[in-house]
Structure formats: C-alpha cells, structure tokens
Amino acid sequence: MKELDVATWNRKEHFEFFKQFSDPYFGVTVDVNVTKAYQFAKKNNHSFFVLYLHACMKAINAVENFKYRIKEDKIVIHDVIHASATILRPNNTFGFSFIHFSEDFTVFNENFLAEKKRIFNSPHLFPPTNSEDCVYCSAMPWINFTGHKEPLAGFSVESVPKLAFSKFKKEKGALLMPVSIKVNHALMDGYHVGMFFEKFQVELDKIA
C-alpha cells in the first residue's frame, strides 16, 4: 500500500470538490453478457456466481482507481483488492465474506469455499478480516433489476465501491445480467467505470 500524491494528481480539484459531499457516490446499472460463463459453469459443475465474481475481480484489479481509498483526507492505493461478498446461509440470513483475490481461479474458488464454510458455521455478520482493501458485492438471483441502491452508513467517509448482481435475462439467445455499481466520485469518474465494464466483459468472454 502506498499514498497517492494528491497535490500532483490530475484529479486534485475533482477530489477536493466531491469529497465535501454528504453522499459523493454515483452509480449505474449495466448489462453484461454472461452466456459463456453460465454455459461453462453448468458444463463443468462450477459455481456460476464464483466464475463471474472472479471475472469481476480481475477487472476491478485492472483499473487503478478502484484501488484508491480515502484515509484521513488522504488517498491510499492498495496493492490488491479483494471481494467482500454477501453469502446466504441455509436459514436465509447472510454473512459478509472476505474472499482473498487471486488471478488463479482455482485458488480464488478455494478461498470462496473457505469463507462459505466459515459463514455457514457462524451466526456472525462480519468476517475476521474486515478491511477496506475490497469491494462490497451482493447477488440477488431472485430479482431482475434495472436499478439498485446500496445503504450508506453516513458516520464516516466511505470510499469502497459497491456492486450488486441481478438475475440474468435472456435476449436474442444471449444471457444478460444487470450489474449495479456505486463508486465515490471523489476517486473516479464515469470513464473509469466504463473501463471496468469493458474489462469485465473481456474476462467473461474468456471463460470457455
């Protein structure tokens, strides 16, 4: 982890402007094509969720601004961003996970399974590791949504990106999954979100 030199950053004025907002987050909901990922998951008995989450995290880690976090009016850059995904228990409550990222899908899947096991055997909401070098994400496979709002704590400066994955829909033979993302405008703009979605789709299309 290192600190960003805000004084020489080309978004210095953007940062200083948007960090004053009570809610500096902006969000969009975008369809991604998950046809290949879904077919591969079914054919190879993999978790569809873990497959697309891994593709998502590869894209997150490929865009530097998604590694920025605000700490005491400064910006730190994390080396790696992990996934803090909600995992549903058999009793329909959920726990927050902290899934350590790896470019290797096998390793990432093992990390997911370890967190799933921990959550299934614990009534607690929060994971033992609860740091900000992550993105918050949740899946709602019961609902096909076109918009989504994440809760905002409001008692501290928040800068962790937040994602939600919808139930997919079928259009002209393709499976399209709406993905909602909320990011702190002090740290990034629509351009960076666009880069993320472009890289996310590339990673999804590699799954075969």
Brief rundown of the structure:
This protein is an alpha+beta fold. It has helices at 12-18, 35-44, 48-62, 105-120, 190-206, and strands at residues 2-3, 25-33, 68-71, 74-77, 82-88, 94-96, 134-140, 162-166, 169-171, 174-184. A hairpin with a 2-residue loop joins strand 3 (68-71) and strand 4 (74-77).
Report on this structure.
The chain is α+β, with helices and mostly antiparallel strands. The chain has one domain (2-206): 2-Layer Sandwich (Chloramphenicol Acetyltransferase). The protein is built from five helices and ten strands. Strands 2, 5, 6, 7, 8, 9 and 10 form a seven-stranded mixed β-sheet that branches. It has a three-stranded antiparallel β-sheet with strand order 1-4-3, with no helix packed on it. Helix 3 (48-62) packs across helix 5. It is globular and about 50 Å long.
